[in-house]
């Protein structure tokens, strides 16, 4: 291989994300990357991501892909996708660590995401899983970060989305029209963006569900009623109006990314933000030589109670191209169980830290450069 695998920084149901270091003398890749890997037999979603990213080309607001390779490790054949390394983690990590963002930062990140969505939609694709976990903070210099859209495993060409109806994405970010298993169009990405803005501004999930919440009733209310995420009181009037345009229930009336870029809430806003530093160890290295002593218990593993039910449902969606439910009610029931779900999970991704491999990467760099 033209790169060396480092420590694992994330795991999901089908793939693992690791740090990757390009070998000495390798000019095709940057010194530090992220590599997303899975067994060849389970690589359909990851292959789709590679194909979509290759079609999107070079967009500053989309996580860059440097290509794909195969490797044989531990007696298993792996499919690997080499990606831009998001030194700041995800916006979900940021909100978890620091809480709600100040409105000026919400504006900047939202404008960056909108520019990415405008480009994605303009070339005929729909992301289908916009959420804070898939909005990544990449460094434009040592102290300034911009948001980029990542994880295109569920993305599709717009016309294919319309042809193949069914669930795609994460339930609590789905637009009402998607909860009935109908079209997931570019308008659905805008609804999901609105949910992400609510989370950035409030520091809480767009749909705040307490233990004991009747998930079935809530999803029915989103689909068939007039419910939309509550607008954070902290937002300015411009911000509240922006969310109203995102949460129009008729997808034909919902504003497009192009239209929202001209909204007063984000118009003329810069897209880079100085990244806040936690009092604890930094969550990510800022350069190949900057590896803090990460604490292994900083991000606990998900518990069965919080994620098991949505893992089962969403794994079945990702592994099937169509569904045979006979009514919208059946489709909604497929989304829930008696357990209280983690509303933001689609593939059970969680961050992990491995000090041994971090030290290995440091040693490798010092020995090669």
UniProtKB/TrEMBL annotation:
Gene3D superfamilies: Transferase(Phosphotransferase) domain 1. ATP binds at residue 36. It holds the Pfam family Pkinase. One of its GO terms (molecular function) is protein serine/threonine kinase activity. Residues 3-266 form the Protein kinase domain. One of its GO terms (biological process) is signal transduction. The keyword Ligase does not apply. SMART domains: S_TKc. Keywords: ATP-binding, Kinase, Nucleotide-binding, Serine/threonine-protein kinase, Transferase. Residues 277-305 are annotated as: Disordered. InterPro entries: Kinase-like_dom_sf, Plant_MAPKKK, Prot_kinase_dom, Protein_kinase_ATP_BS, Ser/Thr_kinase_AS. Belongs to the protein kinase superfamily. This is Protein kinase domain-containing protein. It comes from Vitis vinifera. The lineage of its organism: Eukaryota, Viridiplantae, Streptophyta, Embryophyta, Tracheophyta.
């Amino acid at each position: 291989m033209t790169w060396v695998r480092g420590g694992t920084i994330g795991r999901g149901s089908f793939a693992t994300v690791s740090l990757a270091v390009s070998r000495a003398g390798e000019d095709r890749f940057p010194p530090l990357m992220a590599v997303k890997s899975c067994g060849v037999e389970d690589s359909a979603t990851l292959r789709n991501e590679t194909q979509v990213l290759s079609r999107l080309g070079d967009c500053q607001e989309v996580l860059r892909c440097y290509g794909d390779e195969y490797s044989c490790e531990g007696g298993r054949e792996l499919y690997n996708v080499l990606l831009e390394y998001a030194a700041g983690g995800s916006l979900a990590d940021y909100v978890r660590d620091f809480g709600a963002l100040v409105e000026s930062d919400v504006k900047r990140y939202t404008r960056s995401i909108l520019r990415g969505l405008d480009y994605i939609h303009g070339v005929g694709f729909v992301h289908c899983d916009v959420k804070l976990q898939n909005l990544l903070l990449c460094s434009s210099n040592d102290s300034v970060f911009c948001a980029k859209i990542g994880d295109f495993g569920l993305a599709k060409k717009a016309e294919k989305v319309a042809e193949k109806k069914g669930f795609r994405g994460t339930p609590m970010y789905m637009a009402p029209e998607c909860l009935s298993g109908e079209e997931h169009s570019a308008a659905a990405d805008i609804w999901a963006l609105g949910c992400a803005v609510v989370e950035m501004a409030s520091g809480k999930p767009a749909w705040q569900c307490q233990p004991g919440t009747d998930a079935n009733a809530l999803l029915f209310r989103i689909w068939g009623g007039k419910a939309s995420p509550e607008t954070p009181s902290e937002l300015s009037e411009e911000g509240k109006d922006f969310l109203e345009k995102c949460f129009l229930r008729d997808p034909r009336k919902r504003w497009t990314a192009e239209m929202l870029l001209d909204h007063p809430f984000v118009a003329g806003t810069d897209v880079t933000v100085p990244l806040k530093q936690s009092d604890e160890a930094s969550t990510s290295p800022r350069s190949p030589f900057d590896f803090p002593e990460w604490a292994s218990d900083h991000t606990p593993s998900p518990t069965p109670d919080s994620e098991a039910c949505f893992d089962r449902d969403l794994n079945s969606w990702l592994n099937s191209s169509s569904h045979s439910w006979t009514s919208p009610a059946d489709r909604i029931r497929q989304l829930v169980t008696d357990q209280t779900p983690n509303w933001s999970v689609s593939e059970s991704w969680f961050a992990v830290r491995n000090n041994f491999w971090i030290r290995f990467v440091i040693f490798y760099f010092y020995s090669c450069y």
